[in-house]
Amino acid sequence: MRGLACVLAVTLTGAGAAGFPGLSIVEGRRPEPQQPRPTFRSGRDLVSVDVVVRDRSGNIVKGLTAADFEVREDGKAQDISGFSFQEISDAAAPPSGATELLAGVEERMADTAAAAAPKPMTSQDVAGRRLMVLLFDISSMQPEDVQRAVDAASKYVAEQMTAADLIAVATVSATLEVLTDFTGDRAKVTQTLARLGYTEGTATPPAEASTAATDEAAAEAEAAAAETSDVDLFNNDVRLRALRTLADALAPLEQKKAILYFSAGMERSGQDNQVELRTAINSAVRAHVSIYPVDTRGLQAVVPGGDARRASGRGQALFSGRGVAQQFSRLAASQDTLTSLAADTGGRAFTDTNDVGEAFMRVRRDISAYYLIGYSSTNPARDGRFRRIQVRVKGDGLRVESRAGYFAERDFAHTNRGDRETQLQEQLFSPVSSTDLPVMVTGGFFRLAPDRYYVPISVGVPGYAVPVTSEKEGVSLDVLGVVSDEQGRPVGRMRETLKFPPGAGATLAGKQVLYQSGVTLPPGRFGVKVIVRENGTGKIGSFESALAVPELKQASVKVSSIVLSTQLQPAARGRQESPLVRDGIQLVPNLTHVVGKDQKLLFYYEVYEPVEVEGGPQLRTSLAFYRGKVKVFETPVVERVAVDAKDRKAAIFQFEIPAGSFKPGLYACQINIIDAAAGRFAFPRLAFYVR
Fold first, then answer.
1. Strand pairing category for 399-401 and 76-78
2. How far is Cα 42 from Cα 40, in angstroms, rounded to an integer?
3. Which residues is 138 bridged to in the sheet?
4. For 610-648, how does the pLDDT look when each residue is reduced to its tens digit (9 = 90+)?
5. Average pLDDT over residues 519-546
6. Burial 354-382 (b: 16+ CB within 10 A, else e)
7. How would you classify residue 331: left for phi > 0, otherwise alpha for psi between -120 and 50, otherwise beta?
8. Is residue 462 helix, strand or coil?
9. From CA 551, how far away is CA 451, in angstroms rounded?
10. Quick one: CA dihedral 459, 462, 467, 473, positive or negative?
11. Which domains are present in the chain?
C-alpha cells in the first residue's frame, strides 16, 4: 500500500529493547569502515556576560572598570579579557540605516546546512544602537489581535522611535518570514507594519475542537510545502524554532538585543516538544537576547459557562465550579509558556493588559545601559553541561544583575564509540538537549486489564533531515528513549540502532523514518524522552513530552485513544500482543496527522466493558467530520451487539475512508459513541489536515 509523501517506503521497527517487548528491525549490510583522517583544530571560546549594576536606589552605576569585577565559572576564577560599558544615547546615535543581519534567516530555520551565511557584521557596526525584533505570531492571533499589535507598534514608531533604534519586522505561521531587516528608517518600518493588519491572522486553534475554516485556494497552493509544515502543524515547535533561529542570527553581536513576541497565547498540546522550549531559551541566553512576549488578547475575563464564542456548558460542571476552574486553567496554560520565555531570558511577559505599548518602553529601559564582560573559560570540555556564572562587584550596597550561566557546546567529531554512547546518555538526562535533528514522538493507551494499559510509542524523523552522503554507504540512526513516572524513576527503556542498507537512495526527502515500540503501564502520569542521533554528521534530536494514562474506571464510556493511520504492514514477530496488530497486520500510526488525497484514512479505537443486556451490548458509533463548525460528512452508524476481545472486554472499531472524499484543508473528526443499554455517550475528537 502506498504511504504518505512523508512516510518511508520501508518502515523500520526496533527489536529487543528492555521493557519494550516483541520488536524487530530490518537489518541492512554494514558499510565498510573507512580510515579516519587526522584532524587538528585550535581555537578559544569567548564567553560574554552582560551585567547591570545598580545602587540602593535602583539607579545604574557608571564609571566602573574591569578591576572592580570578579567573574567565576563553576566556582573557579576567570580572567577578564574583554570589558566595555554600553550606553545608548538617543541624542548621540549615529545616522540611521539598514543592515543585513537577518539575511537568510528563513533558510536557516528550515535547514541550517543549506543556508547562506549572513553578511559579516561586528558589534562596532551597530554600536550605540538599540536592536529590536518585532515578531508577529499570525498563526495564533485573530485578525483583530494582529491589528491591535500593529497599531501599538506603529504608534511607537511614529511617536517614540529615535535615531538609536534599529527595528526588524518578522512573522511566523507555518514558517518564519523576515519582512524587513534591521533599519532605522521610520517610514520603511511603518510601511512594513501596514502590510499586516487585518489581512493577516488565522488563529488556528488546538486540534480538539471546531477549527477555523481554511481557504481552499491557499491550501492547494501549499500542497508542495516543505515537510516541516507537516510536522509542526499541530504543535508549537515551529514558533519556538523561530525564536531560536532569530536568537542564533543575533548571536554574533555582543550587545543586548530584544525580541517583542506578539502572540495570542501558546497552549502546549500533547504533540509539543518540551526540549524545543528549553533550547530556544538557551539560545536566547547565549546570544544576549531578551524575549518580551505580549498577549495581544488583552485583558480577559473568565465568564462562567463560556463567552459568546462557545457553546454553553453541559452537565454538572457549570454548577459545581469545575467548569469555571477549567476555564481558568486553559487561560493560564496559554500564558505559562510566554511567562517562561520572558523570565528565563531576562525579559518580561505582558499578559492581561490592554496597554500593549508598555512593552516598548520596558525594552528601552532594560537595554539602555550595561557592562559587557568577556572571558575565555578555563574549562575546555565540550560536554554540553551547564556552567554557572557568578559576577561580583567591589563596593557596598551595589547589586548585580546578570545571567546565571550557560550550557557548553558539544563536539561529535572527536568522540569514540564509548564517548558516543555516553553522549546519548547525557542528552537523555540533560535539561537542555539538542534539537538539530527534528524528532516527533506520539503515544496512546489501550486497556489490557483494569490496572494495565498498553502504551504504543512511535518515533518519527522526517527523511529530509537525514543526510545520505553516498548511495554506496549505509545510513544509521541511534535511538535511545526512556519512560519515567512522576518521581523520575524509569519504567521503560528503548535502545536501538536503525540501519539503512547501501543504495537506499541519494536522499530520503519525501519519506519518513518510523520506529515503533510500546510499554505496559498502570494508570497515571508519566514522561517520555527520546534521543535520536544520525551517525554520519552527529546531528542529534530530542523529544520530551508528558504521557498520561487515564483511569477509565470512573469514565461513563470507557474509550481508548484514537489512532489515525494511512498505512498497514505485516507485523513483525513478537508484535501479536499489541492491540494495533490483528491477524498478522499492523496498524502504523500517522504521526503528523497530515494526509494526501490519494490515501485512505484509517481510524481505530476500542470501547471497554459496554453495559450488556439480554442479547449483549448495544453500542452505536459513527464518525462525523467538521470543517470549521460545518459538518461536511458523516459515516453510517455501526451497531455492535458483542465484544470482540473477550479477554479485555473490548469492542473494536476500525473505519476506512478515502481521503479523496475531502477537499484540501483542516478538519476535525468527531467520534460519536453511544452505549444505548447504559444511556451514556462520548464524543472524542481528532484533527487532521488533507493536502
1. unpaired
2. 7
3. none
4. 998 887 899 999 999 999 889 999 999 999 888 988 888
5. 90
6. eebbebbebbbebbbbbbbbbbebeeeee
7. alpha
8. strand
9. 8
10. positive
11. 97-367 (3.40.50.410), 593-691 (2.60.40.3880)
